[in-house]
Write a structure and sequence with these properties.
42% of the residues lie in helices and 20% in strands. It is of the alpha/beta class. It has a single domain, classed as 3-Layer(aba) Sandwich (Rossmann fold), CATH 3.40.50.300. A five-stranded parallel beta sheet has the order 2-7-1-8-9, sandwiched between helices. Helix 1 packs across helix 7 and helix 5 runs antiparallel to helix 6. The longest helix has 16 residues. The radius of gyration is 16 Å and the shape is globular.
């Protein structure tokens, strides 16, 4: 599908990758340096981490509220992540931004990215990869937000997620955040000008 089918509609870029690869950090860099790019705020049933603000980092919702969003088709995608909490992308906000012609970024997990691929096949799928698995493990341990059991669960998930890289249109290696941010922003200009 080409841009001509929706002359005013912007393209959607989906950023996914393994846990602790730095998706949130790269998205925060884009939010700060490129306010013209709209970044979706996911809904989640997990509790806020220190410093996270409801409506800014996530929409923190109860299990009942999440059930209602699922039942009313209010989510573009959703998934159970790490076998525990649910995350999802509110559909209406994404549609509004795309219809308004604004560049839109979804920073989501692999399961969610697969659902978006099915529902919006013209989205550009970008995989954020670590320089190595050892570096990914170092980042996860260094974050200090999970206990040992949770770290092990996330590392198992990360190994599976890394194996999905070939499903994506583009891979960006997150060696350093400013470079990854710049490469991701460049994808918007390459897609919107085509």
């Amino acid at each position: 599908m080409t841009a001509e089918h929706h002359p005013t509609r912007s393209r959607l870029v989906v950023l996914a990758g393994p846990t602790a690869v730095g998706k949130g950090t790269v998205a925060a860099c884009i939010r700060e340096q490129h306010p013209d790019i709209w970044i979706s705020v996911s809904a989640t049933t997990r509790a806020p981490r220190p410093g996270e603000i409801d409506g800014v980092h996530y929409h923190f919702v109860s299990h009942e509220e999440f059930d209602h969003l699922v039942a009313t088709d209010g989510l573009l995608e959703w998934a159970v992540v790490h076998g525990r909490n649910r995350y999802g992308t509110p559909r209406a906000a994404v549609e509004e931004q795309l219809e308004a012609g604004r560049p839109a970024l979804l920073e989501i997990d692999l399961q969610g990215a697969r659902q978006v691929r099915e529902r919006m096949p013209d989205a550009l799928m970008c995989f954020l990869a670590p320089p190595s698995f050892e570096e990914l493990e170092r980042r996860l341990v260094g974050r200090g937000t999970e206990d040992a059991e949770e770290r092990e669960r996330r590392l198992r998930t990360a190994r599976e997620e890394l194996a999905a890289e070939s499903e994506f249109d583009v891979t960006i290696v997150n060696t350093d955040v400013p470079t990854a941010c710049r490469e991701l922003v460049d994808l918007f200009s390459s897609r919107t000008s085509s």
